[in-house]
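$ fold --in a.seq
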Amino acid sequence: MLFGLGWPEVAVIAIVAILIFGPKKIPELGNALGKTLRGFQEELKKPSEDDSPEQEK
């Protein structure tokens, strides 16, 4: 499944996350994580200005 984890492991991780952060905080954490991953993927997709050969004067 996900990173080599099965459904029982995912369920245990979800229960521990709910116990630690609380049910109201989980959607906020997921939203922040999603925005971070989207930003990271966009940076990987766009051509980097540092990689382009610089023109010498």
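$ fold --in b.seq
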Amino acid sequence: MVTEPVSRRTLNRTLLSRQLLLEPADMGPEDVVSHLLGLQSQNASSAYPGLWTRLAAFDFAALGRLLTERRVVRLALMRDTVHLVTAADALRLRPWLQPALDRGPRSAPWVAGLTGVDRAELIAAGRSALAEQPLGPGELKELLGPRFPAADPASLVTALRCWAPLVQVPPRGVWGVPGGLRYAFADDWLGAPLDADPDPAGLVRRYLAAFGPADAADMQKWSGRTGLKQLFTALDLRTYRTEDGRLLYDLPDAALTDPDTPVPARYVADFDNLLLSHTDRTRILGDVPKSRVISVNGLVSGTVLVDGFVAGTWRFTRDKATVTLAVTPFAPLRPADRDTLEAAGLRLLAAAHAATPPDLRTVRFTPA
């Protein structure tokens, strides 16, 4: 096995290419969600700019239709966080990730509220409660509490979300449409069973196609699953050695991207897996400290890329009738990058806030 050297800049350009961030992709949103193995959707709105920035043409209403048509769903998956995934991947990923979801809560405070609760009985009670229609957390507490009188009702709902494949049904997650949190079992909502035998090797290949080159620790960071090293070493994969000596793996026929490939300034959504799926984030953060974009509570800002690396943050703000895309660069921007971000920002505002008149949509730059 020949191991080739790979630079940080090459990893950067390759990651951007596989994440469809070098140039807009001529694909449909469902295909992009599948290729990326989902988009984090802890913030229900994050997937919309996440898709917009990757696609040549994306109508925010299109994702809402996919949700209401049950072709994509939102549920707890990687890292025990809510992700937007295709229906097929929901049924495939949830059983594969269940051991990680089971491991996470062992020391969680809410576990103390599960006195007298048998896991199988709680799941059965939850399925019975949700058999006729989706229900919200308050309704579930009222139904489950009497079944387990020694337990805390809020802990029962939290445990059910962890132990059972509950999807968050629309209108929750539909852009611009208010909707409270309501749950349904994934197999009931999608009309198909969970995958009884998910293919871990196939998931490694798909992870590398979207995030490679990478190693088992990187995939563990992305997924929360442990024990992945043997999968990587058993597969027929190409290997690379990073500048700091790490061994990375990649698909045998996957090409690296030229490190000198130009990358226009670009917006990346908050909570985007671009920033969350490697142990060494310098391939996208460069020399920017993680704390500038990821808070101690795990909140991930929307980011601005300049020359392919994180160079600032952005967010939507409202002031009376005006909606603003506020950019906070970490260093002074070159005029060309500022112009690119202003033009792209106005397009993003038009897509996200079409009902707001153009003269009330603005891009504002905070001095670095």
